[in-house]
Design goal:
This protein is mostly helical. The protein has nine helices and two strands; from the N terminus they run αααβααααβαα. The protein has a two-stranded antiparallel sheet with strand order 1-2. The protein is globular and about 55 Å long.
Length: 274
């Protein structure tokens, strides 16, 4: 099936309304989040928001005469293999980043943190829900609606900027958003484009968040990672830039070397190839 080609004005309007609904859904989901038991709020928020966003997407595509596959929610989007590949790529990326940090800041020391199995399972479930929420909200309907109208890379830019902007609304620091969230958004977008689904970007997104949580970067976690050397000065300043560059390099490699051929996927998304 050829992806419907909308005018730029129509595509922009539909995606703008979708993102407005996205924000309203996240706000409404904060109500049950506040009623959840301690430690369960983020999971409830992510799960409720994810279900609502999937439902909204299905309603919209039915009205527009599109299929679930047209917005990344077809059977290809839930393949366990693609999800596992995303997990592996994310883990490899984080391993490289930690290796570079060790080179810049001295030997790495890992200290185990006291945490029970129940807390581990709860955190994993939470990060799954949040990854699904954000991928459906950005690399699903919005990216698959904008790309046929504007082209893949302009659509990528719009979605990545919108994704970064939501993290600013969450209160994230501007430097973290520009050097961390924005390149990650481009990586997730490339994963969605070349795989034509959401399983690969969800796996990638999940693995990056889990790795950061497990190593103490998001609070709690399985361990605490410290470096023996001095992390101030140019070494500390260089690490975010190196992380940005490595993330963008992985995105470029995924675009070029994805087995099915990124060029074919690009043509398919632009509606010139069935």
């Amino acid at each position: 099936m050829t992806v419907p080609r909308l005018s730029t004005a129509t595509a922009s309007r539909r995606v703008a309304l979708f993102w407005l609904a996205y924000l309203l859904i996240l706000f409404a989901a904060s109500i049950p989040k506040g009623m959840a038991p301690p430690g369960w709020g983020q999971l409830v928020w992510g799960a409720v928001s994810s279900l609502a966003l999937v439902g909204l997407t299905l309603v919209l595509i039915r009205r527009e005469g599109r299929s679930a596959a047209d917005v990344g929610l077809g059977r290809a989007a839930v393949r366990a293999l693609l999800f596992a590949v995303g997990l592996l790529i994310g883990c490899a990326l984080m391993a490289v980043l930690f290796g570079i940090a060790a080179l810049l800041s001295g030997p790495m020391h890992v200290t185990a943190a006291p945490i029970g199995l129940g807390a581990v399972v709860l955190n994993i479930a939470t990060f799954v829900a949040l990854a699904v929420m954000e991928e459906v909200g950005f690399r699903g309907y919005p990216l698959r609606t904008l790309a046929p109208a504007f082209g893949v890379w302009p659509a990528q830019a719009v979605v990545a900027i919108a994704f970064a902007a939501t993290h600013l609304l969450y209160g994230w620091a501007l430097s973290t958003v520009l050097l961390g969230v924005l390149p990650s958004a481009l990586l997730f977008g490339v994963a969605a484009i070349v795989s034509r689904g959401l399983a690969l970007p969800i796996g990638l997104h999940l693995s990056l968040n889990l790795a950061q949580w497990a190593t103490g970067a998001k609070g709690g976690g399985l361990c605490t990672v410290t470096f023996a050397g001095n992390t101030s000065g140019w070494r500390g300043a260089a690490e975010p830039w190196v992380g940005c560059l490595v993330t963008l390099t992985v995105a470029a490699a995924l675009w070029v070397y994805y087995p099915t051929g990124a060029v074919d996927r690009r043509l398919d998304w632009q509606g010139r190839k069935a």
